[in-house]
Every structure is written in structure tokens, then in C-alpha cells.
Specification:
The chain folds into two domains: 37-98 and 371-482, Alpha-Beta Complex (Aspartate Aminotransferase, domain 1); 123-362, 3-Layer(aba) Sandwich (Aspartate Aminotransferase, domain 2), CATH 3.40.640.10. The strands form five sheets. The chain has a seven-stranded mixed β-sheet, with helices on both faces. It has a four-stranded mixed β-sheet with strand order 1-2-3-17. Strands 15-16-19-18 form a four-stranded antiparallel β-sheet, covered by helices on one side. The mean pLDDT is 96. The longest helix is centred in the C-terminal third of the chain and has 19 residues, at 373-391. It has 482 residues and is an alpha/beta fold. The relative contact order is 0.14. 40% of the residues lie in helices and 16% in strands. The protein contains 16 helices and 19 strands. Helix 5 packs antiparallel against helix 13 and helix 6 (132-144) packs parallel to helix 13 (349-362). Bound molecules: pyridoxal-5'-phosphate. Pyridoxal-5'-phosphate is lined by residues 97, 158-160, 163, 187-189, 258, 262-263, 291, 293-294, 320.
Length: 482
């Protein structure tokens, strides 16, 4: 039972109807039988190739350009394995860019999806809602407030919308301040405002620029070493902030912290650096906003601000992706005036029933900390990369701008073959897809192979199997045969 309502109502009777749940359990078992047939990487099936090609053509026509990957799933998978509509089976190391953290055909997800089907409406909103949206927000805040002052959650449908709400909260609190600070190479989503803040020229091509953004360097160990240590790098950046503050006194509303950069290259920061920047914000009346849309759940703590031990500084925090429904959280002090945040949809019933399962599973124990399951997965991933580097040193030439051939944190994993060359890294991702691994690239140069695996479903023994496929893919690219 993943859906809740008040006792004594007709709805309560429906949600607790034993015969319905017995039928659901039968369905879950049946799905499990199909799921169990997916056991290893498989080539596409020749007989359905024509139908699948047609699907791809249709998908390309609708979108106006071909899909980046011929990636349409059949609707069934097993843990980290997913069956595609061409009959092939692949390791899903991308999970829709970090969404399916519970893996494929997870019985708990299937049951939560069935529970959602009982409700009278599909969508919930700010004017009528089921209680599940409330429990979802309540649970998020319960976790978030353990190590921060976050007190309220506004639920919404996408990461970009959560960020749009966050920026409004910051603007209102610090009105009329209208500038924002952000890290170089940050990513914040694809709405008009977020595309302007995100530090990617391609992402804002043709978009009129109305948002006033000043960029600050992300932590960079090489640069810090070249300057003479972390303190020098901190001093340099604080000096930049002081210049911005002097130039735009009273006009800076917020500093957006992507605490581990996602699209920017899975770059991990330094806690002292972040602390110095956040203290600057506190001293100068600038909101500290953590964009945890990619980091939430998957670092070595549930929130990346907990990993860096910076929760007390956070005024606003946004989460999304694996949470299914997205949220903007804020402290009591930042609770906006009525009218600022609303919208037709908060999400679909299933977003909340599955989102609640996700929160249960994340907090079940054993996942977090330096000795937790997510850290262990990262260590195994690093071991596989190290073995690949040792076996094929020519695929891993010395590369400027990286701190080791693999990096990231917890379930954010990257490695850097072929000197981080964009063409070769993209070719490696495409070839990996053919060889049975779904992955993607990240970074703005050097470029990296990026993985966001379903750590709540993945087994440690899956890793060598994933890397067998990766090795085949890299071999093809190295030989110029991809
Ligand atoms: C850090 C960060 N912020 C915001 C977003 C936007 O989320 P969405 O794509 O759900 O709008 C993303 C998506 O990749 C992200 O990584």
C-alpha cells in the first residue's frame, strides 16, 4: 500500500481492499516472471528489426530530428538490464539521465504503479490533490531538515520548473536584487531563464538574454595547486565575489550552487571552498541555493550539502530526477508570499507513490557514508576503470584538466578515455550502446564518459559484465571501426 487517505472514507475502503491488493500481487509476480527472462546483454532480434526501424523513423519525424540513441524500451527489464523494442538487452548505466535509480521492473515500483491506478484522477495540482503529494513533500522535508533549516516543499513536475520556483523565491526575498551568481560550466535546465544561467553557449542559442548572471570558477584542484594551494584559490574567488559585490551592491539575489557538477563533467568540489563562498553570501545578504536535481540521493549522503557538511548555510534547495516528482524546498525565512508559487500540476499519482518508495529505499540504511553501498559501487567502478587503463594504456593518454582517469562521487561516475576528445568520447558512448551499455558523455572539454547507474537495483557482480561491453566498445573506437 503506497497510497494513503483518511480512515472511514469510501476511498480508504478502496485503497485497503484486500481483493484488489491480492490481484495486484498476482500482477507483480507475473511481471517478475517476465522480468526474470532478462538475464544478459542480447543483440537486436532480426525479425523485429523492420518494425523497430519504423518506430525510430516515426519518433524522429515527430521530434523533427533523429533520436540521439535508437533508445525505445520494450517495457520490461531486470534490475540494471533493460530490454529495448528491437529485442536487444542492454546495461542501463544512464537511467534516463538519472531517473530510474530503482532499476527496471522493480517489484516495489510495479506495486506502487498499480496502487496509483486506483485513484480517481491521474494528475494532482495546487487546487486539488491526493494526500500522496503531501506525504511526498513531508518525507522530503523530514530528510532535508535533519541537517539543514529547510522547512517547506513546493512540489512540481520537472527540474527546470523547480529551479524556476527557486529563483522566484530568491528574487522575492531579496527584491529588487535581480542578479544571480553561478558556477562556470553549470547546468540548470532548459527553461528560458535556466538556459541563460546554464553555462553553455549551445543551450541558449537564439534565446534573448534577460537574466543577469555573473560566473564564479568551480573548484579546480590543478588550478589551486598551480596558485600555491586551496587558500590561494579561495582568496582569488572571494576577491572576485568582492568585485561583483562592489560593482553591483544590493543587486545580487542568489548564488546557485551545483555542489557536484553534472553536465559540467561530474566535478566534485572542496568543502572549504564551498564554505568560504557560502559564508560570503551570508555576510552579504545573498541567498544560498543548492541545485541538487542531479546530485540528490546519489552521492555519499542523501543530500550533497550533507556530504560537504554545509546544511546550515542552505536557504533554498531543488531536487528532481530520481525523485520522480520534483521539489523546491526553502527555509521558514524564505517562505514566499501567497501567489508566487502555483501551477496546474504538482505531478501524477504515480510520481508520488513511486517517489515515496524511492525515499523509503534510499533511507532504508546501508546506502550512505564512506562505507555505504553507494561508495562501494563507486569503488568498484573505479577498480574497473583502473583495470582498463592498465590493460590499454594507449586508450588513456595523459589528459590535461582531469584529476585521474575516473571521477565523480557515489552514483555519479565518469571516466576519461582518448584524452577527453569530444568526437572519440561521443563515438565511445554510441559504440557502447551497440555493445550493450547505455551511457552518455559530460564535460565541456575534456569530455568524459558518464554513468548514472541504478544503484538501488545494481549488484556488485554486474560491474565486470558492464565493463566487458565497454572494453569492446573502446576497442572499436581505438581501432577507428566504430
Ligand atoms: C543540476 C541540474 N539542474 C536542473 C536540471 C533540469 O532538470 P529537468 O531536465 O528535469 O528539467 C538538471 C537536468 O539534468 C540538472 O542536472
Amino acid at each position: 500500500m503506497t497510497s494513503t487517505t483518511t480512515k472511514g472514507t469510501v476511498g480508504d475502503g478502496l485503497l485497503h481492499d484486500e481483493s484488489i491488493h491480492a490481484a495486484f500481487n498476482t500482477i507483480v509476480e507475473k511481471v517478475g516472471e517476465y522480468s526474470a527472462q532478462i538475464t544478459e546483454v542480447r543483440e537486436p532480434t532480426a525479425e523485429i528489426a523492420t518494425d523497430f526501424k519504423q518506430m525510430l523513423t516515426d519518433a524522429g519525424k515527430i521530434k523533427g530530428r533523429p533520436l540521439m540513441y535508437p533508445s525505445i524500451s520494450s517495457g520490461v527489464g531486470n534490475g540494471a538490464l533493460v530490454e529495448m523494442a528491437d529485442g536487444s538487452v542492454k546495461w542501463d548505466m544512464l537511467t534516463g539521465i538519472g531517473v530510474h535509480f530503482l532499476g527496471h521492473s522493480n517489484p516495489k515500483v510495479i506495486k506502487a504503479q498499480l496502487d496509483a491506478s486506483l485513484l480517481d484522477t491521474t494528475k494532482h495540482g495546487n487546487l486539488q490533490t491526493s494526500y500522496d503529494a503531501v506525504t511526498f513533500g513531508e518525507r522530503l522535508i523530514e530528510h532535508a531538515s535533519k541537517n539543514s533549516n529547510l522547512a517547506h516543499a513546493f512540489i512540481t513536475t520537472s527540474g527546470a520548473m523547480a529551479n524556476e520556483s527557486a529563483i522566484k523565491v530568491c528574487y522575492q526575498k531579496h527584491a529588487p536584487a535581480s542578479r544571480v551568481l553561478a558556477f562556470e560550466n553549470c547546468f540548470m535546465g532548459r527553461s528560458v531563464t535556466m538556459a541563460q544561467i546554464g553555462d553553455s553557449a549551445g543551450g541558449r542559442q537564439g534565446v534573448p538574454l534577460s537574466t543577469l548572471v555573473d560566473y564564479v570558477p568551480f573548484w579546480n584542484k590543478d588550478q589551486a595547486d598551480a596558485m600555491g594551494g586551496a587558500t590561494k584559490f579561495i582568496d582569488y574567488t572571494i576577491n572576485r565575489l568582492e568585485q561583483y559585490h562592489a560593482r553591483y551592491a544590493g543587486q545580487i539575489s542568489t548564488f546557485i550552487f551545483e555542489l557536484v557538477q553534472g553536465e559540467g563533467g561530474f566535478n566534485v568540489s572542496n568543502p572549504d571552498y564551498l564554505k568560504a563562498l557560502m559564508e560570503f553570501c551570508k555576510a552579504h545578504g545573498i541567498a544560498v541555493w543548492a541545485d541538487e536535481i542531479q546530485t540528490f540521493g546519489r552521492t555519499e549522503q542523501m543530500f550533497a550539502y550533507e556530504y560537504y557538511n554545509l546544511g546550515k548555510y542552505i536557504d533554498v534547495c531543488t531536487v528532481g530526477k530520481m525523485t520522480q516528482a520534483c521539489a523546491t524546498m526553502y527555509t521558514e525565512e524564505y517562505n514566499p508570499k501567497p501567489g508566487l508559487l502555483s501551477g496546474t500540476f504538482t505531478g501524477a499519482t504515480v510520481d508520488f507513490t513511486v517517489g515515496n518508495v524511492l525515499l523509503d529505499e534510499l533511507s532504508a540504511g546501508g546506502n550512505y557514508g564512506p562505507n555505504g553501498k553507494f561508495a562501494a559501487h563507486h569503488a568498484e567502478f573505479s577498480k574497473q576503470v583502473a583495470a582498463l587503463v592498465a590493460k590499454h594504456p594507449d586508450w588513456f593518454p595523459e589528459t590535461a584538466g582531469i584529476d585521474g582517469f575516473c571521477g565523480g562521487l557515489g552514483g555519479m561516475m565518469r571516466f576519461t578515455p582518448f584524452g577527453g576528445d569530444k568526437k572519440k568520447v561521443m563515438a565511445a558512448c554510441k559504440e557502447a550502446y551497440k555493445q550493450g551499455v547505455i551511457c552518455f558523455y559530460c564535460g565541456h572539454g575534456p569530455f568524459h564518459v558518464r554513468m548514472l547507474p541504478p544503484l538501488l537495483a545494481m549488484k556488485m557482480e554486474d560491474w565486470p559484465r558492464v565493463f566487458e561491453c565497454m572494453e569492446r566498445a573502446l576497442a572499436k573506437v581505438a581501432a577507428g571501426k566504430s
